[in-house]
């Protein structure tokens, strides 16, 4: 019988009964439990007593709720000493605050996987070092946010550990930290091998000293503390010791599976997203989707098109794959055109729901209108709605090109003359400066930029922009720069991306570059209240202050 040790930090007790039920699910293994809690927390004390009467509790460690669940875990590692050698794997778990439905969902994901007997046996058999639910795994490089400096401090501190078996060169560690080659488990709950546990035990006193020296006061959801950095470090640690990752996910709607992560070139791939579909999007949508009888050949064509546009080859059925990614990649299925559907359904469309599923429900047994049957006038009106078409701007562009056309005839003129010339219809839409659109138009030997952009690339553009905004708001400057480059490579420079570039240059202390980008931003920013293609507010917190400083340094756009 294999031996498992589980570390549980108890603070919130609202899911007391669920925790106890899931502990009982581990039946075929020899289970020991280490509990950490603050004795001043009466509710936590009661739960500790209840667990101690029902299970084999190896150790109870008293500690303040400082450093969230991370410092208690490290102290518990020290407390058990050489006993760590008795166990094959360890589970790290902490009780969570179920303040929202999303928090309940995340907690249920962890219960489902971390306490599953069969999966735990597979972790041991496959000698995997770090396993967590796939739906909560992220590339660590994209999830650093404000924790980059603290993560560097941890790497340097570990480099100085003379008693550690973890031989980490600081420069190599920081280089790896900036690479797409390691994983972060959202929520900081996972399964660890014995060798990882021992290596973490070696470094834990040094990290605890960092906690003790830190005077950090902030809300749990803030970033920038040693605890937040250590949450990331656990996943990075696996790569530093050349360990292996395992993804816990659904093999089918009825069964769970474990998949070893693999590398492609210099990058680590998240190779299966079935779980995101099943859990994050909720099982009720799976049930609804299964009702519809859909031809696999049509779905295969759609999936092939998504792969051609850059979607990795994920191991899932065509139906699930299209359900998850068809909206983002704007790929057609029969008469379903994601971008047109989403635009036409506003404000009825619910972004967190699948547009594909909504279309199936609304159009069951009904042949909807194909994009091929939409007139140019309809695309023109959509362009007006999205802020892609500005009549005054287009009129000025036409006059500059030597064309004098009355405004009521401009849609027809643009369809016949403006489209082949890739003429800009607004400051938000300049087809010649959108690389992905120019390439598509050239390959297809046709020039209908407004139609092609709305039907093929609009949703992709929005997806990029939203990710850019998230990174800016999290103040992860490296992550912001990476997404900014990808966005501009596909969709060119606009006033929002120029504004972001100016802010990033200012943060780096490159005032000359900041000024140059600010001039581009000022030139491209619309002079009147026209709809913006991307989210209106990119900047928040310190970034707003930087924007104001740029205004003061270089003047408002009206004066440029």
Would you kindly provide a written description of the structure presented here, covering whatever features stand out?
With 560 residues, the protein is an alpha/beta fold. It folds into four domains: 3-263, Alpha-Beta Complex (Spore Coat Polysaccharide Biosynthesis Protein SpsA, Chain A), CATH 3.90.550; 282-369, no CATH class; 372-435, no CATH class; 456-559, no CATH class. It contains 24 helices and twelve strands. It has an eight-stranded mixed sheet with strand order 3-2-1-4-8-5-9-10, sandwiched between helices. A hairpin with a 2-residue loop joins strand 9 and strand 10 (255-260). The chain is globular, with a radius of gyration of 27 Å. Mean pLDDT is 81; it is low at 271-282.
Indicate the CATH topology of the largest domain. Spore Coat Polysaccharide Biosynthesis Protein SpsA, Chain A
CATH class of the largest domain: Alpha Beta
The N- and C-terminal alpha carbons lie at a distance of 75 Å
How would the global form be characterised? Answer: globular
Q: Calculate Rg over CA atoms.
A: 27 Å
Strand order of the largest sheet: 3-2-1-4-8-5-9-10
Architecture per CATH nomenclature, i.e. the level-2 architecture of the largest domain: Alpha-Beta Complex
Helix segment count? 24
Mean pLDDT equals 81
Count of all domains: 4
Low-confidence stretches: 271-282
Task: Sketch the major β-sheet.
Answer: 8 strands, mixed
Counting helices, strands and paired strands, the structural category is: alpha/beta
């Amino acid at each position: 019988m294999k031996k498992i040790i589980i570390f549980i930090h108890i603070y919130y007790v609202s899911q007391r009964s669920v925790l106890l039920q899931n502990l009982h699910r581990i039946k075929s293994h020899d289970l020991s439990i280490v509990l950490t809690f603050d004795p001043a927390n009466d509710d936590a004390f009661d739960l500790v007593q209840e667990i101690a009467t029902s299970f084999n509790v190896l150790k109870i460690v008293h500690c303040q709720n400082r450093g969230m669940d991370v410092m208690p875990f490290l102290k518990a590692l020290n407390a058990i000493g050489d006993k760590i050698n008795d166990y094959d794997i360890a589970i790290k778990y902490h009780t969570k605050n179920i303040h929202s439905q999303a928090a309940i969902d995340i907690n249920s994901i962890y219960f489902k996987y971390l306490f599953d007997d069969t999966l735990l046996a597979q972790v041991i058999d496959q000698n995997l070092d770090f396993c967590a639910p796939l739906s909560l795994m992220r590339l660590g490089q994209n999830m650093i946010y404000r924790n980059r400096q603290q993560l560097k401090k941890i790497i340097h501190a570990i480099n100085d550990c003379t008693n550690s078996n973890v031989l980490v060169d600081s420069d190599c560690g920081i280089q790896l930290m900036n690479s797409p080659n390691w994983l972060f488990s959202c929520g900081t709950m996972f399964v660890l091998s014995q060798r990882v546990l021992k290596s973490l035990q070696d470094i834990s006193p040094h990290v605890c000293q960092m906690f003790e020296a830190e005077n950090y006061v902030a809300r749990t959801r803030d970033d920038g503390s040693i605890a937040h950095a250590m949450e990331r470090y656990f996943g990075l640690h696996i790569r530093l010791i050349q360990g292996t990752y395992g993804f816990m996910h659904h093999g089918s709607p009825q069964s769970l599976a474990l998949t070893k992560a693999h590398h492609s070139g210099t990058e680590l791939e998240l190779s299966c997203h079935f779980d995101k579909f099943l859990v994050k999007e909720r099982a009720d949508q799976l049930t609804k989707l299964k009702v519809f009888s859909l031809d696999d050949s049509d779905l295969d064509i759609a999936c092939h098109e998504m792969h051609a546009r850059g979607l990795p080859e994920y191991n899932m059925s065509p139906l699930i794959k299209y359900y998850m990614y068809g909206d983002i990649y704007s790929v057609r299925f029969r008469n379903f055109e994601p971008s047109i559907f989403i635009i036409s359904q506003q404000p009825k469309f619910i972004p967190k729901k699948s547009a594909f599923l909504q279309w199936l429900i609304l159009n069951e047994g009904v042949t909807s209108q194909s994009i091929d049957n939409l007139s140019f006038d309809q695309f023109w009106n959509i362009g007006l709605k999205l802020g892609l078409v500005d009549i005054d701007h287009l009129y000025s562009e036409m006059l500059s090109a030597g064309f004098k056309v009355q405004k009521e005839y401009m849609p027809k003129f643009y369809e016949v003359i403006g489209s082949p010339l890739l003429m800009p219809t607004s400051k938000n839409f300049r087809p010649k400066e959108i690389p992905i659109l120019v390439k598509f138009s050239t390959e297809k030997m046709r020039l209908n930029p407004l139609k092609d952009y709305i039907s093929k690339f609009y949703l992709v553009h929005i997806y990029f922009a939203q990710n850019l905004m998230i990174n800016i708001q999290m103040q992860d400057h490296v992550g912001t720069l990476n997404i900014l480059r990808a966005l501009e490579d596909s969709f060119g420079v606009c006033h929002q991306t120029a504004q972001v570039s100016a802010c990033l240059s200012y943060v780096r202390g490159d005032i000359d570059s900041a000024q140059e980008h600010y001039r581009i931003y000022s030139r491209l920013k619309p002079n009147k209240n026209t709809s913006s293609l991307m989210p209106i507010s990119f900047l928040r917190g310190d970034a707003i202050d930087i924007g104001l400083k740029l205004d003061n340094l270089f003047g408002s756009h009206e004066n440029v």
